[in-house]
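ok so dumb question maybe but i'm new to this and my supervisor (M.) told me to 'just get the structure for Helix-turn-helix domain-containing protein' and walked off. so i did the thing. is this what she meant?? sequence i used:
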Amino acid sequence: MERLAQTLKRDKANEKVRALHKSGTALKAIARHTGLSRQTVRRIVRGTRDDVFRSRESTFDRWTERLESEWAK
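this is what came out, is it supposed to look like this??
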C-alpha cells in the first residue's frame, strides 16, 4: 500500500513538472519550485526518468518457512 502511495506521489510530481515545462517555465525554476534536483527535472522532461523500484529481499524471507513450521507445532 505504501509503495502505491509513493508511485502516485511520483506520478503527480512528474505531471506537475511536465505541466510547468509545457507552460514555458525554465528547468531551474521548476527545480526551485518543486524541490527536485535540476537533473531529476531534466530527466522527467526528457522522459528518461526511471520509475522502476528495485525490491529487496527481506532478511526474514529466508526463515519464514522454518518459523511457520515451528510456530505450527
